Amino acid sequence: MEKYSQYRDRGSGIAPFFPIPTQPSGIYLPFHVFLFLIRLPVLLTVTLSYFFVLQWLPLGPLGKKACLWMILGVPSIWWIDLQIDGVKKGSLAKHHPTRLPQPFSLIASSLTSPIDALYLAAIFDPIFTASYPSTPLVTQISLFQALLRAFSYPQQNPPRNAHLKPLRNIMREHPNRVVVVFPECTTTNGRGILPFSPSLLTAPPTAKIFPVSLRYTPGDITTPIPWSYLSFLWTLLSKPTHCIRVRIAESVYNDSISATNMQDVLQADDMGSSSDTLLGTEDGDSKGVQEKKVLNKVAEALARLGRVKRVGLGVNEKTQFVNAWKKHRRR
Questions:
Q1: Which of 96, 103, 83 is nearest to 208 (CA)?
Q2: Of 37, 40, 194, 327, which one has the greatest count of Cβ atoms within 10 A?
Q3: 140: nearest Cα among 186, 182, 101, 197
C-alpha cells in the first residue's frame, strides 16, 4: 500500500478511502454461499417492488417505513445500537421532542454505505439532498438517488443544469419533513471525517442541525470505492447478521452570517439558478470565522460520535485515489 501513501492523512495517517477487507470465510464458505444465494433473489424482489411499485401507492409514511424495514430485514440488519447525547438509556421518551430530529430540522449524516440512506428513510422519512464541495447550494434527490450516490464517482461540481437551491428553500417547501444532508459529499470507509461542503451554511438559523453518525459491524459493507455493487452485495448478504451503531449528537444551530444574509443567493435561486452560475471554491476562502465555526461544530460532533478523527483529504483526493486504484486493479 506504499503506492497509496499520499492518500493518507498527513497528521493522523488515516486512510479514509481504502476499502475495508472482508474476513475470509474459511470453513464457513458453503454456509455463506448458501445465505447469499437464498437472500439475493429475495432482496432484489423486495427492493425492486418497493422502488418501482409500492412507493408510488398511497401507503402513507408507516406503510413505506414497513417496506423499508423489510428490505433491511433481508440481510438481517436488525440490531440497532442507538445512543443519544444527553439521554440515558431507557429515558428516551421523556426527551423525544428535543433530542431527536423533528419536522423542520436537519440531519447532518456521515456517509459510508447505501445502508445510511435506507436506515434514515426507514426511521425519519426525510427529504434527501446532495451536497458538493464547490457550492453552498444543494440538489434535492430521492431515496433511490441517495442509494446510488453511495456507489457513484465523487463529484466536485454538481451536474450541468442541476436545479440548485439553499437548504432553507427546501425546508420552506417541506416544513413537515426532516431534511438529510451528507456534508462530506462522498463515501468513506468510516475511519475519518472529510472536510465539509458549505451547504449547511444555507440552513435557516432557527432550524436544529443534528449530527448523526452511522457505523457498521462488520465494517466491510462500506463503499468507499465507486461501482462496488457486487462486492457490496456479497458482504451484505453472505454474513448471518449486521449491526448498526447509531449516535445522535445534541443539535447545533446555524448562527453564521450566511444564515441571516443570503438574499442574493435566494434571489438567484428563485430566478432559476443553474450550476454554472452558483459555484464557489472548495477551499472555502469566502467562509468567515463564524461560518467555519458552525461547520467545525458539526464535524467535531461527527468525529466524536464515530470515535474517529477529522482528516484533510477531500473529494479531489478521493478522485485521484479512485483513478489510481482502478488503474492498479486493471494490471
A1: 103
A2: 194
A3: 182
Name the percent of the chain lying above pLDDT 70. Answer: 86
CA dihedral sign of residues 85, 86, 91, 96: negative
Residue 191's closest CA among 303, 318, 316?
303
- pTM summary value: 0.89
Residue 110: how many CB atoms within 10 A of its CB?
25
H-helix or E-strand spanning residue 103 = none
DSSP state of 197: P
Q: Please name the helix (run of DSSP H) or strand (run of DSSP E) that holds residue 215, with its range, or none.
A: strand 208-217
Report the chain's terminal Cα–Cα distance, integer Å: 15
Report the DSSP beta bridge partners of residue 193: 310
Position 283 scores a pLDDT of 46
d(CA 301, CA 249): 7
Q: What ranges make up the beta strands (E) of 10-64?
A: none
The residue among 147 and 82 whose pLDDT is bigger is: 147
Cell numbers found for residue 46:
423486495
Cα separation, 128 vs 178, in Å, equals 9
Which pLDDT belongs to residue 2? 54
Task: Give the H/E segment covering residue 106.
Answer: strand 105-109
Asked whether 311 and 12 are in contact (CB, 8 A), the reply is: yes
pLDDT at 282: 45
Residue 176 in grid coordinates:
413537515
pLDDT of residue 271: 45
Q: Residue 218 corresponds to which amino acid? A: P
